[in-house]
Amino acid sequence: MSVTIKEVAERAGVSVATASRALSGGRGVRPANRERVLRAAKELDYEPNAVAAALRSRTTNSVGIVVPRISNPFFATLVEAVEREAARGGQGLLLSTSQYDPEVEAGQLRSLLDRRVDALIAVPCHSERSRAAIEAAGQRVPTVQLDLCLDGGGGSWVGVDSEAGILAAVEHLVGAGARTLAYVGSEPTDSSAQARLDGYRGAAPLCPGATERVLLGDFSLEWGHRAARRLLENRREMPEGIVCGNDTIALGVLRELARNGVDVPRRVMVTGFDDIPFAELAEPPLTTVRQPLEQLAAEAVRTLAARLGGGEEPHRRVAIAPELVVRASTRAAPPPR
């Protein structure tokens, strides 16, 4: 049978109220009494009832997070970064996935709220259809959108400047000698897909040759394979550089090019976006735009902590600059003359 706080109080020779305040770090407890209570709790191997403590304090020291799909290496790594950051503040993390379905997402948000999380981090799976559920959640607890965001804002957001990242990739390819480009990305159903497509279209005039080939599907390995096969249908017009909307697409493109004997980077250069753990292990290693996950996680958790403390605006927007990481899937730019 588990030890009760009443038994701890009796061992320490204090009231139950005093024992409770001493164990929770509350004020109004004399140092000698606090010491006796802590010693008694240790001797009795007392484990506090977290549920009861939450009911008393009206806080659970927990944050809920909903991501589109944990099988996506980017989201898996992002969740780990958020979990580490939350733990530094003494908070646990409850994870749910939406499977890119706004109805599932709404249900997961309700479930986390039913578990009385103190705050929420949401990665909206759809830029429009996710709005009602996320805004409703934001009316109940502090909520921040991470990585992806709703059209037109809709609360606090922390993410990277995707357009700047794509611009850096295009500038690198052109500087390395690419005269024609193609873009392989996702249909713009979420904010990142839209921003990266916009970034490519805005940067395309920097390339001296054709850039009009834009292939849109989803952020999957399979789509990367299919898109590469479409580009290979006319090898004479293969682009010299392929800008991919994420690393998973780029890995599919690289594999399909290798199967068809296309030399990367001599014949075609390929870039990705995110810098997932597999990017460096690709053959050849993938040039990509790195998202600073630890910084993103820290900003998201800090934004929630400030909201919980009553000192942060509910519509804070933070766009962090990504970093281009050059690897062997692209050529080095020639030295200036």
UniProtKB/TrEMBL annotation:
Report the superkingdom from the record.
Answer: Bacteria
Keywords carried by this UniProt record: DNA-binding, Transcription, Transcription regulation
Domain HTH lacI-type positions = 3-57
Q: Name one GO molecular function term.
A: DNA binding
| SUPFAM superfamilies in UniProt | lambda repressor-like DNA-binding domains, Periplasmic binding protein-like I
Gene3D superfamilies attached to this UniProt entry: 3.40.50.2300, lambda repressor-like DNA-binding domains
Q: What is this protein called?
A: LacI family DNA-binding transcriptional regulator
Task: Tell me which species this is from.
Answer: Nocardiopsis suaedae
